[in-house]
Amino acid sequence: MNLTRRHILAALPIAILVACQEDPPIGSTSKPAKKRAELGPMMKPADLVKRLDDVKAGKIAVLYVGPEILFDHGHVPGAKKLLEAGTDAGKKLLVKEIANTPKDVELVVYCGCCPYASCPNVRPANEALHASGRKNFYLLDLPTNFKTDWKDKGYPSERS
Q: Do residues 79 and 20 touch, judged by C-beta distance below 8 A?
């Protein structure tokens, strides 16, 4: 059977969601986030939507730490795409981005690829935020995924 590009692109989001249900990749230093209570502090999507002008004004930096393909299909307006935080390179880039962000700028970090309980990116992002010593940071509260907890609620999104 000859697969067309359309078939491959249609199957890719499903493959990503299935991958999020499995153990983190070899070489990853993270473990899936088992309990939501271990994460945070959290910012509710509705609260970030109310503050999108602060994102535009540079008072809030929104950092995306999930799969590139999902970011390209829709993300929080003004979000900066980094690498997946569940990889060594992604976590290092996140740590560097946190350090380079002025201390008076709030940070909001999210993945949104899958539920927190199985996300390979949420825990390392949470660890990096806590290790930074900053007090003005949040994980975006997307317990199911970006589509369900943001897009399906009608919140604005951008595409790359």
A: no
